[in-house]
Amino acid sequence: MLNIALPKGRLGDKVYELFASIGYDCSEIYSDNRKLVFENKENGVRYLLVKPSDVAIYIAHGAADIGVVGKDILEEDSFDIYELLDLGLGKCNMCVAAPNDYVEDFDRPLRVATKFVNIAKNYYISLNREIEIIKLNGSIEIAPILGLSDVIVDIVESGKTLKENNLRVYEKIMPISARLIANKSSYKFKSADIDRLMEKLKKELAKNDKNN
Question: Which carries the bigger pLDDT value, residue 8 or residue 210?
Fold first, then answer.
């Protein structure tokens, strides 16, 4: 069977709806139980529900053949996988945000609070800007408010949380969306099944774009 790792949560719901729309349905996913593995024997696929940040790990180590993961996770950590397709789901941006009245002082290192340490480092290396990274795991927006950092690097979707905390987008680093990825060995031996699914996804995405 083709093992597909899907992220739990809101993005996972969107991804599953997309897969169901191309005939890869497994409505048992929505049943009220704690199962994490679901099968669609008709199409020869098995869905594995995992934490979003773990999807690429399952793929890289061959526990799943293909999966769906946010571009932010792929950029933050290096995985030996194939990135096959941009699904266009969960669109947002990786941004630098700062207080509304912020003025950058270029005479000292920039203090950057983020949980995306590598993305932040690589971005500022490209600007040849010296920085001090402050790694946080939650409530990033509060860091500049309390003077812990000058700016933050984080995912911005609607910008509502920034606005409520008197912050604004200072710079956009990159667009983020869900990507279809594959284990390299799996793609070699199961390419026909993976390509068949991928072509259906491409057609469905093109149809959705046309309708929108």
Answer: 8
